[in-house]
Structure formats: C-alpha cells, structure tokens
Amino acid sequence: MKADHFEQQKLLALADEDVALTQLAHRQRTLPEVAAVEAAAEAERTFAEAEVRAETEVRDLDREQKRLEADVDTVRQRATRDQSRIDSGAATPKEITSLQSELQSLARRQSDLEDQVLELMERRETADAALADAQTGKASAVADRERAEQLRDDALADIADSTSRHQAKRDEVAAGLSAPLLALYDRIRTQTGTTGAAVLRARACQGCRIELNGRELAAVRNADPHEVVRCENCGRILVRTAESGL
Ligand SMILES: [Zn+2]
C-alpha cells in the first residue's frame, strides 16, 4: 500500500491517542477505588449479619424473660393464697401441714426461677453489648463505603472526561486520514490491542522495541517514502522520521 509520506506521520498522533485511550481503559478496569468499595461493602455485610444475629438473640431473651417472670408471678400468687388460707384460721391442722409443705416447695421454686432471671439478665447484657458493637461497626462501615463510592465515582468521572477528550482528538486526527490507510491502521490496532503504527527511531520499532536487522533496515531504507512499510515483528506500520537512523 502507498500513502503520502506526510499523511503517514499523522498515524503517530493517532497512535498517541490510542495509547492514552488504552491506558485509560486499563485504569478503569483496575481502579483501586472499585476494590475499596467492594471491601467496604463486604465489611458492611458482615456487621449487618452480626446485627441481625444480636437482634434475634435479644428478642429471644426478652421472650424467655417474660415467660420466667410470668412463672414467678404464678408461684407468688399461689404462695400468697396458701398463706392467706393458713392465716384465715379456717384450715384444719392436716390442711395446714400440707399448705406449709407446699409453701416450702414454692419458695424453692421461686428462688430457682429468680436465679434463672438473673442469669438471663446477664446474657441480655452481653447480647445488648454485641448489638451495640454491630450497630456501631455497621454505621462506620456504611460511612466507609459511601466515602469509597464517592472516591470511585470521582475517579470514574475523571477517566470518562479524559477518555472523551482523547476520543475527540483521535476522531479529529482520523478524519484527516485516507480511508484505506485508516482501515489498515485499525486492523493492526485490533491485532496488537494498542496501536496500529509506531515510529522507527534509532533503527528500532517503538511499538515492540525490537531493533530492525540489517536486511529489514535495508528494505525500509530502499522503500519509496510513500510506501507503507511494516514492522516484521509486531506488524505495525513503521513511520519513518529524521530520527529513524536510516
Ligand atoms: Zn514492531
């Protein structure tokens, strides 16, 4: 293929924009701010799960405590009724003996229930503390995540801004190229993943950094200035300048 020597020089400006666009796309894919958001969201989920567990524990303990308190009430009422019967003077000696025995057993039962209530209150304190810890941790993780999201959004906006500037510049350069040369450049660019042309500087292709051997150099040297020559190693169009070392 032949293309005006001056037009070939414009490929370098196009390649510069493609390098910038490739770097921006890579930066977007590997943004540390994205990983930071994921880490913060993971911490938030962990605290939220701990919060749900602690809330469930507190609810269960509350229910258990109400049940125990109802039992204590029942025992107290029974004891009060027994005592009133004894105090009334209407009970027979045999009945009194039986009531006194029941009162003793009710007192043991009440003491036992009260011990259980105390134990429950201790467990409730522990559960309350765990709940408070989970809530504090979650609030702090939410703030971390929101901050990380803001940083990520700022970085993405910055990348989007640079990308549109470089894309506009690339479109401008591409508009000044003939369709066949641009098509060839774009085909090579798809293959290399970055650029379709590189400058030949000091006898080396600056696309793949490989120095041309004697035969390759002679071929480039003898080629018509308007001939489109390519790097045999990476396939890029080699743009010749005064620095090419030919
Ligand atoms: Zn090369």
TrEMBL record:
The record's annotation in InterPro entries points to:
CT398_CC_hairpin (IPR056003), Oxidative_Scav/Glycosyltrans (IPR052376), Zf-RING_7 (IPR003743)
Q: Which segments show compositional bias classed as Basic and acidic residues?
A: 74-85
Pfam families per the record? CT398_CC, Zn_ribbon_9
This chain's protein is named Uncharacterized protein
The ranges of region (Disordered) come to 74-94
Q: Which residues form the CT398-like coiled coil hairpin domain?
A: 14-193
Judging by the UniProt lineage, the source's domain of life is Bacteria
Q: Domain C4-type zinc ribbon spans what residues?
A: 204-238
